[in-house]
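pasting for ref
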Amino acid sequence: MSERAAEPNTVLLRRGEVHSPADPFATAMVVERGQVAWVGSEGAADAFTDGVDEVVDLDGALVTPAFTDAHVHTTATGLALTGLDLSDAPSLEAALALVRDFAAARPGDRVLLGHGWDAARWPGGRPPTRRELDEATGGRPLYLSRIDVHSAVVSTALLDLTPGLDAPDAPLTADAHHAVRGTALGAVTAAQRTEAQQAALARAASLGIGTVHECAGPDISSEDDFTGLLDLAAERNGPRVVGYWAEEDVAKAQRLGAVGAAGDLFVDGALGSHTACLHQPYTDADHTGTAYLDAAAVAAHVVACTEAGLQAGFHAIGDAAVTAVVEGVRAAAEKLGLARIRAARHRVEHAEMLTPETIAAFAELGLTASVQPAFDALWGGEDGMYTERLGTDRARLLNPFAALLRAGVPLAFGSDSPVTPLDPWGTVRAAAFHRTPEHRVSVRAAFTAHTRGGWRAIGRDDAGVLVPGAPADYAVWRTGELVVQAPDDRVARWSTDPRSGTPGLPDLTPGHDLPVCLRTVVGGRTVFVRPSE
């Protein structure tokens, strides 16, 4: 990414397809002073050619609002891009071989960092032992986070660097995990951190992502990491970064420049690590997970944030955790008034195990559901991890996007990267072709949740859509025929007829190629151009 340019150019884009509710037949757009100035037809575009700095011939390409990824861990994403990625390892043996190769290739690293292992998908289903990791690293410090980032396996040398920790030879969770993660990330130099952040933001820009919501906090990263990322994004051309700091200290969140004391403020953990908090025990374990905050703590935090003019937000995956959030927010509404709570647009991250009652409560309380459709693509289905953890009946209830939309709950889509990759069109596809058919939504609704939904989640209703006056955050795509698509006639009609008056989107039927990003623009400034395009 380059240093931030001065005033952005005035640009006319023409001879393409512009996805805009202002004109479903638009083929051209004018951008001026970082905003959309005009959207319309090819014939009318001629009137603007003399008054712009640049004319871009789209040659039939599609222009859409840039995506917003509403849940990202930017530095961790960059470290996964530049470090050891185990997400494609097909077996324990393959993972250990990758560890050996990585250790040999990085002799100068103080701590070896890796991410993405998932023993549930390996033959035998077991994670590496500490002895196996010690052998693979030659006795060096190693931290390997599980794919959901709520547990990790480590080498003996890393434990020796973590004071006062006597940990079992098993994946570490909760406080033990937070301790070793702090040790591992503390060994990352400022230069490594900046390199990782630049790599993550560059990847986001290359995928048509114009904004990321950074979900940071003391149990996830560090204050220096958070403020360094915000400074980097402010100084250079690249995606916007909206920062959330997950701590109950509201004054600190304000001091650090966060828009909310929110994001991954943990009410519970994750299903894969058996730490999501459930009302009934896991199918494959004799406990109900881990509770970090109760309803009283949730209520106190929501009150404090609301009074300070900040968003509150919570990580809640299990049904008991979601219940605690709902009860806490409702108690805050009883104290401050429902209107003030709704106006604050507090958030719930993940919100996977919902019931009709908690969905109705989200709608009543004005809570935004910040959700990750790729979780279902990765772990859903009759043979997936959800079924293994919860059994078939409970697993089929997870991630009910259609029910949330029907109830009027605002949705914001994200990846939780590096838990799942930055992949906006893949995310839209995952929601439209949910493994449980009754939870599917139309491609248009999913696209809106991944563009405008992210802006609405931070209180901006004027962005994430290409209409005059909106921020000029857009992406240009090479794609096939545009359609108005739903995977099920119960959701919405499928039409390729332009007379429907609805702007078309790419055909995301599984098996079709996803659109290729040619250019990404943020605030009128180009932040990515595909090489040789």
